[in-house]
Design a protein that fits this description.
The chain has 352 residues and is mainly alpha-helical. 55% of the residues lie in helices and 9% in strands. The chain is built from 16 helices and 7 strands. The strands form 3 sheets. Strands 3-4-5 form a 3-stranded antiparallel sheet, covered by helices on one side. A two-stranded antiparallel ribbon has the order 1-2. Strand 3 and strand 4 form a beta hairpin. Helix 2 packs across helix 5, helix 8 crosses helix 12 and helix 12 runs antiparallel to helix 13. The longest helix is centred in the first third of the chain and has 22 residues.
């Protein structure tokens, strides 16, 4: 391809990715470049040698030693990475961060059609064993706590009658009740995709999501916003006067409304601030709305297919874990002793 065509390809690739994904890729590649330069005293080039990828894993993955857990990243390099802003704090990253950085490097090689060191047998075996080592230590993937019905109601109680309070109540209920929308989907919600079907009932057409990047799943795109969520959304639209553009806007000083929509980070901030006001434990984030919807659906015995229709999950495996957790808590088999205690006469009659 000529230079113009190549530029067009790169522009389309960039436009097709979400802003959050692009930022995470950029941060991971900046880290790779900084680590490589400090480790090998030269600039990184692709394809990255397999030996360097192996070194990256052992530099960042913790292993057991006689003195406890340790990794091979030299202290001076660790301090330099923190000082220059490539790391937030000293010490090894989480397993999830390590795997993400390997995945980004692998993706970069794939896009450039280069020999991929991350697919080398030695690297794949090392990563597999590293995963198992972490699992044996009881290190589980970091999951944000779920905003099920009770904690969600606690958040809603912090929303007063101010413009910001009315907005936050509508936003939380819209995100939760329409299927646990992702923060980017909430931030991107626009009036053009919202149809009022009753005084306090709406249908929101989700044109694009994480699992439907092309917006092709039209049959599953319509998400109901009814009940409490519909009432809250109607109140927000009436109070704010929003008729086009972004549904959820920034609220400025003096209860003035911005013409620009919220950023994805603002959705996360709203959840965290409301959780703090409600006195809930740390850890809740925007994703807690999504996991909370799925978990609550499982608790209330909503069929998995119906739940996935709302959430837009493409994989049953992504949803089944929440259903199993909810089922474990409510399992009748786990309460056999309690059932006996509730039936003393039946227990007495069984005695010889």
């Amino acid at each position: 391809m000529d230079a113009l065509a190549q530029d067009a390809v790169q522009a389309l690739m960039a436009e097709g990715e979400s802003d959050n994904t692009v930022r995470s890729y950029q941060a991971a590649l900046r880290y790779w470049a900084a680590w490589f330069a400090m480790r090998y005293h030269r600039s990184i080039e692709m394809p990255v040698p397999t030996a360097a990828v192996v070194q990256f894993v052992v530099d960042h993955a913790q292993r057991k030693t006689d003195s406890g857990l340790s990794c091979e990243l030299p202290r001076e390099i660790d301090e330099a990475l923190v000082a220059r802003g490539f790391k937030a704090r000293l010490g090894p990253p989480s397993l999830a961060t390590l795997l993400h950085r390997l995945s980004v490097l692998s993706k970069a090689h794939q896009l450039h059609r280069l020999a991929n060191p991350c697919q080398d047998v030695a690297v794949r075996e090392l990563v597999s064993k590293t995963r198992r080592a972490y699992a044996k230590r009881g290190v589980a993937p970091d999951r944000k706590p779920a905003l099920t019905r009770e904690p969600l109601e606690a958040l809603l109680q912090t929303c007063d009658d101010s413009l910001r309070g009315v907005r936050d109540r509508a936003l939380l209920l819209f995100a939760w009740a329409s299927g646990g929308r992702r923060r980017s989907e909430v931030a991107d919600a626009r009036m053009e995709n919202l149809t009022r079907v009753g005084p306090a009932a709406f249908v929101y057409r989700l044109h694009r999501s994480k699992t439907d990047q092309s917006g092709s799943a039209a049959a599953q795109a319509d998400k109901p916003v009814v009940g409490m969520a519909g009432v809250a959304l109607a109140a927000w639209l009436a109070r704010s006067g929003v008729v086009d553009g972004p549904v959820f806007r920034r609220v400025l000083r003096g209860e003035k409304l911005s013409s620009s929509g919220l950023a994805s980070a603002a959705v996360r901030k709203i959840v965290k601030e409301r959780a703090a006001l409600a006195g809930l434990a740390d850890g809740f984030s925007a994703h807690s709305l999504r996991s909370g919807f799925v978990t609550e659906a499982a608790r209330q015995n909503v069929p998995m297919a119906e739940t996935m229709e709302m959430t837009g999950h493409a994989s049953v495996a992504s949803v089944v874990g929440y259903f199993r957790t909810a089922a474990a808590v409510s399992s009748r088999a786990a309460k056999l002793l309690e059932r006996l205690d509730d039936e003393p006469s039946a227990r007495a009659s069984d005695q010889p």
